[in-house]
Design brief:
A hairpin with a 3-residue loop joins strand 2 and strand 3. The radius of gyration is 14 Å and the shape is globular. The strands form two sheets. Strands 1-2-3 form a three-stranded antiparallel sheet, sandwiched between helices. The chain has a three-stranded antiparallel sheet with strand order 4-6-5. The chain starts with a helix and ends with a strand. By secondary structure, it is an alpha+beta fold. It contains three helices and six strands; from the N terminus they run H-E-E-E-H-E-H-E-E. Helix content is about 25%, strand content about 35%. It has one domain: Aminopeptidase (3-Layer(aba) Sandwich). One of its GO terms (molecular function) is acyltransferase activity, transferring groups other than amino-acyl groups. Keywords: Acyltransferase, Transferase. One of its GO terms (biological process) is UDP-N-acetylglucosamine biosynthetic process.
């Protein structure tokens, strides 16, 4: 689990870890088939009750990396069979990306960590 938190911290300004890291399903995205070196990972996310901590390194952006992570997270939620809706709290600047993945905004904009965020949802049925 620490390797996922380390990658998250590597690409984010936040230095947070929470009680969900230990029980969440974590995904790492690599630019090639070689997954032997964690430093080569270009993205990470986790699933639990909602999709969270989606991070893509600059070198993976605009190349399908974020979409690949979201697809993997949705597939895991469907595989578990307990989720009917995927939820995530999106930074408002990333709202367009999540909309392109089929998520729709729900509710009002809130401040989270000093940045505006909005809840976004997607049916998994």
């Amino acid at each position: 689990m620490n390797k996922f938190v380390a990658l998250f911290k590597r690409y984010c300004q936040q230095n947070e870890s929470d009680e969900y890291d230990a029980i969440a399903k974590h995904f790492l995205l690599f630019p090639s088939e070689d997954t032997s070196n964690l430093n080569n990972a270009i993205g990470t996310c986790r699933t639990i009750v909602k999709i969270g901590r989606v991070v893509v390194a600059k070198e993976g952006r605009m190349k399908g990396a974020g979409t690949a992570l979201m697809t993997a997270a949705e597939q895991e939620a469907r595989r578990q069979g307990t989720f009917r809706v995927a939820k995530l709290l999106s930074q408002c600047v990333a709202q367009r990306f999540y909309a392109s993945c089929g998520f729709v905004p729900e509710g009002e904009v809130v401040l989270e960590g000093g940045a505006p965020h909005i809840m976004m949802v997607k049916s998994l049925e």
